[in-house]
Write a structure and sequence with these properties.
The protein is mainly beta. The chain is built from 1 helix and 5 strands, in the order E-E-H-E-E-E. A 5-stranded mixed sheet has the order 2-1-5-3-4, with no helix packed on it. The protein is globular, with a radius of gyration of 11 Å.
């Protein structure tokens, strides 16, 4: 399966849902926001949101600055 992750083609190794994708990418779950086809998905729905062929995913990681 191929998805679009931040405008680049990506083939998940084992991930089948958004939560598993965050884990596969070794991202800290609490500092990531995810949009699926332009719609923000609440963290509570990541595990129940499956990855599908060609889906557009944008991930944003919170950063601290001053």
């Amino acid at each position: 399966m191929q998805i679009w992750l931040n405008d680049e083609a990506y083939s998940p190794k084992t991930a089948s849902d958004l939560l598993a994708l965050v884990s596969e990418l070794s991202l800290p779950e609490q500092s990531v926001a995810i949009a699926l086809n332009g719609e923000i998905i609440p963290r509570s729905q990541w595990q129940s949101t499956p990855l599908t062929e060609g889906v557009q995913i944008a991930m944003f990681q919170a950063i601290a600055g001053g």
